[in-house]
Amino acid sequence: MSKKTLLAKIAAWHTSREHDKIYKAITALPENERDAEFLCLLARALSNEDDYSGALKTLESIRAGYSGDPYFCLRYALALYQLHREPEAVDWFKKARDLGLEEIDESPGTYLPKSVAKWLERAERRTPPRIEKNAFAARRRAQRKERGLKAVDFDAAAFDGLWDDCRYSLEKYVGSIPSDADISATEFALGYRLPASYKQLIRRHNGGLLARDCFENPLQRDWTPRTFGVNGIFGIDRGKPYSLCGTSGSRFWIDEWGYPDIGVAICDCPSGGHDMIFLDYSDCGPAGEPCVVHVDQEGEYEISYLADSFYDFVCGLAPEGD
């Protein structure tokens, strides 16, 4: 098939939203035939399949020689924007505009902008909040590293009113009290050392639904949610579906739902999987003391910093009414 014929097919597949066919056709080409034009179109298809990380990686491979192309600049900006890197996206939207690109048909969504100017307006509007949110998280992470975190034991009051031991919780979440061997086996399976405070908690109550089911957002702004709902804490009884290594455990959310592989999914939320609470090991390593973050699947897996430690997270949980 000639390049001209394949480009015509790709244009038709884009119009009919058959992005998987674009991906298969381009990746099936011999490597020496996958030129910058094809790779740029591959990135568009990946973005339209919500694989923005893959799109960005593809575009990075041709950035040095193709960054003067307006469609490259646009697709690079779109990938950055969807990955919550709006300040960087602004520069590339401006570059696409300055190269003469105006009206576009990159994304099939009915309500998505169809002009570079509108995308630029969106990115500029979201840039100041993003800068502030990123700075807040970076500051909290740096403070954690500076002072170091020592293991702290829960006092008895920390668990007052914590659990909702309804029938569903007992059936799906709450496991038998684990042995040291059970905990070690779970850590080995996950590839992470679990926090001492988490181990202390599950030795008293091995997971379950929560009665104290809200955590106040530490970054209170008019553009942030005031609180995050928390459904239950995963224990380590593999016989329970909602446990760390259960059928709906940590790897399930990462492998099947596409959550970022930053650590351990430790709590689910009332949305039924569309947001989760994670132990985030990205800045401490698998043997370190993780912070706790909220990940919003419907917001392109946006991460919000919640607490410096699992201990602080549990102590900060409160009933929704509060």
Characterization of the model:
By secondary structure, the chain is an alpha+beta fold. The chain has 2 domains: 3-130, Alpha Horseshoe (Serine Threonine Protein Phosphatase 5, Tetratricopeptide repeat), CATH 1.25.40; 150-318, SMI1/KNR4-like. The protein is 45% helix and 11% strand. It contains 13 helices and 9 strands. It has a 6-stranded antiparallel β-sheet with strand order 1-4-5-6-7-8. Strands 3-2-9 form a 3-stranded antiparallel β-sheet. A hairpin with a 5-residue loop joins strand 7 and strand 8 (302-307). Helix 3 (36-48) runs antiparallel to helix 4, helix 3 packs parallel to helix 6 and helix 4 (52-60) packs antiparallel against helix 6 (70-82). The radius of gyration is 23 Å and the shape is elongated. The N and C termini lie far apart (65 Å). The model has no long low-confidence stretch (mean pLDDT 93).
- Beta fraction: 5-15%
Put simply, the count of helices is: 13
Q: Name the shape in a single word.
A: elongated
In CATH, what is the homologous superfamily of the largest domain? SMI1/KNR4-like
User: Within the largest sheet, what's the order of strands?
Assistant: 1-4-5-6-7-8
Listing every helix as H and every strand as E from the N terminus to the C terminus, the arrangement reads HHHHHHHHHHHEEEEHEEEEHE
What is the overall pLDDT average? 93
Number of domains: 2
CATH-level-2 architecture of the largest domain: 3-Layer(aba) Sandwich
Q: Which ranges are low-confidence, i.e. pLDDT below 50, for 5 or more consecutive residues?
A: none
Q: What is the makeup of the main sheet?
A: 6 strands, antiparallel
Query: What class do helices, strands and sheet pairing give?
Result: alpha+beta
Q: What's the count of strands?
A: 9
